[in-house]
Amino acid sequence: MEWSFSLLNEPERSVLQRLSVFAEGFDLEAAESVCGLGDLDVFDVTDLLGSLIDKSLVVAEPTGAGVRYRLLETIRQFGAEHLVEQDEREAAAVGAAHCAHFLSVAERAAPHLTGPEQGNWYDRLDAERANLRRAMEFAAGDPEGTELILRFGVALRRYWWVRSRAEAIDLLLPALARPDAEQNPYLLCGALITAAYGSRFVDIATARHYAELALETARRLNHEQLLAESLTILCAICYFAGEAEIGFPLGLEAIEQARLLSDDVLLGESLAMYLLCCKVVERDRMGEIFAEAISCVQRSGDHFLAAVLENNARRGRAGGG
C-alpha cells in the first residue's frame, strides 16, 4: 500500500484519503460532497475518482440505481490512518462533510417516505444505511452536534419504523438528554416521538416514557402536528402494553387533530393506530375506521401503510372479526 500510495499525485492522495470516511459504498454525489473541499475543486473529483479506479484502488460496481463505489477494507483503513496522521483538522472537516451530506440525504428522503415513490427512497436509504450510521456517530461525538443528531432522528423516523430497526436509537437517546437539546423544543419534540417509535422495538416502558414526554412537550408548544403525532404513537404503545383502554381516547384525539390539519398521511397513521385499540375497546367501529384509513392512504399513496392495514384486516377476518 505504501508503494502504491507513493505513486499517486497529491490530488489523488487527497481523494483516496477522504474516501476512507465512507462506510461500505458511496455514489458520485457523495464523493463530490466529501472530497471537494479546500484545495480540491468538486469538478475535479470525478476525474480523480476515475484515475483511482484505473489504479485498482477504488472499486466501481454498477447497480440498478447507477454506479456505486467502494474501497477494499485494507485500503480504507490505510487511507483513514494517513488522513489523521497528515492533518487532524482536515480529518475533522472530512467527517463533518460526510455528516452534512448524509443528513441532507435523510432530510431529502423524509417527505417522500409516505408517498407513492416511497419504495425508491427506502431503497436509497437502505443503500446508505452504514453511512447514515457513521454520520450519526460523527454528530454524536461532537459536543456541538446535538441538533444534527435530533435532525437525523426526525428525518429517519418513518424509515426506522418501516424497516423495524432501532439501530441508531443508541445514538439518539443520549442526545435527548443533552442540555442544549432544549434549544429547539419543536425539533426536540419530533426527536422524542422518534425515540418512542424506535424504543418500542427494545423496551415498551422506555417507549412509553418518550411518548409521554413528547405529548407533554407538544401540548406545551400547542403545535397541532406534533400533538397528533405524539398522541398517535402513545396510543399504539398503550395497545402494545396491554392498555388499549388508555390508548383509545388518545387515538381519538389524534384523529381529531389530524382532521383539523387535513393531512392524509397523518390521519392515515392515526386511524391505523386507533384501529389497534378499537379491536379491544370498540370493535363495532372497526369497519368504519378501516374504510376511512384506506381512503387516506389511497389519496396519499402510502403503500406501506396500506399494506399494514390490509394485513391487519386479513388477520381480523381470520380471527373472526
Under CATH at level 1, the class of the domain at 184-321 stands as: Mainly Alpha
What is the CA–CA distance across the termini? 66 Å
Cross-sheet strand order for the largest sheet: 1-2
Proportion of residues in extended strands: under 5%
Give the topology string: H per helix, E per strand: HHHHEEHHHHHHHHHHHHHH
Q: What is the annotated CATH architecture of the domain at 184-321? A: Alpha Horseshoe
**Number of helices, counting only DSSP H or I runs of 4 residues or more:** 18
Computed Rg: 23 Å
Residue windows where pLDDT falls under 50 for at least 5 positions: none
Oligomer: single chain
Query: What percent of residues adopt helix (DSSP H or I)?
Result: over 70%
Largest sheet: 2 strands, antiparallel
CATH topology of the domain at 184-321: Serine Threonine Protein Phosphatase 5, Tetratricopeptide repeat
Spell out the CATH superfamily of the domain at 184-321: Tetratricopeptide repeat domain
